[in-house]
C-alpha cells in the first residue's frame, strides 16, 4: 500500500492566533484553529471554550464526520440517542448523518472539534458556517450577556445552507 503523495510544492504553514477566526457561538467561544483552506479542504479544527450549559442542539452533518477531543472539563454527549460522559482526555467520534449534540456539565470546558469529509467532492463546511453571518468575537473571551452571538433560531436556519440539519433541542446540564 502506498500513501497518497502530498503536493511537493506545499510547505508547512504557521497560522498565528491573530489570523484565526473566532466567533461567539451559543454562549461559547469557537476559534477556527485550522481552516479547511489550509488543509486542501480535507479537514477543519475548531477549539471551543464554554462554561457550564454551553451546548448545541441535536443536529446532523450531511457531509462531515466530526471528532471531539476534550482538553479540559466534562461534556455530556448525545450521539444517536445514547448519552456518553466525555471527560478531559476523552475522544468522541461522530460519523456524518448521526444525530448528536453536547452540553458542558463542568464549570468550564475546552475541547477541539475536527471536521472532515470522506467524500472527495465535498469539503468541511464548519469553518465556512462559522464565518457566514456570525459576527466575529471582538476578543478571545466568552461572550457576556450584553454582547453575544446569534440566537439558536438563526443558527438553525443558517445551518441548512451548510449541510447541517436540526434534530432536536439542546441537551441540558
Q: Your description of this structure?
A:
- The protein has 173 residues and is mainly beta.
- The protein contains two helices and eleven strands, in the order ββββββββββααβ.
- The strands form three sheets. Strands 1-2-3-10-5-8 form a six-stranded antiparallel beta sheet.
The succession of helices and strands, N to C, reads: EEEEEEEEEEHHE
Give the overall pLDDT as a whole number.
89
What general outline do the C-alpha atoms trace? globular
Which structural class do the helices and strands define? mainly beta
List how many beta strands DSSP finds: 11
Radius of gyration: 16 Å
Give the oligomeric state of the chains in this entry, treating copies of one chain as homo and distinct chains as hetero. Answer: single chain
Give the fraction of residues assigned to helices.
under 10%
Unreliable segments of 5+ consecutive residues: 1-6
Share of β-strand residues:
35-45%
Distance between the termini: 46 Å
Short account of what is shown:
The protein has helices at 126-131, 152-159, and strands spanning 21-25, 28-34, 43-51, 58-61, 65-72, 74-79, 82-87, 91-94, 100-104, 108-116, 164-168. The protein is mainly beta.
Indicate the topology.
Layout lengths: L20 E5 L2 E7 L8 E9 L6 E4 L3 E8 L1 E6 L2 E6 L3 E4 L5 E5 L3 E9 L9 H6 L20 H8 L4 E5 L5
Antiparallel strand pairs: 1-2, 2-3, 3-10, 4-11, 5-8, 5-10, 6-7, 6-9
Features of this protein?
173 residues, mainly beta, six-stranded antiparallel sheet, three-stranded antiparallel sheet, 2 helices, 11 strands, globular, disordered N terminus
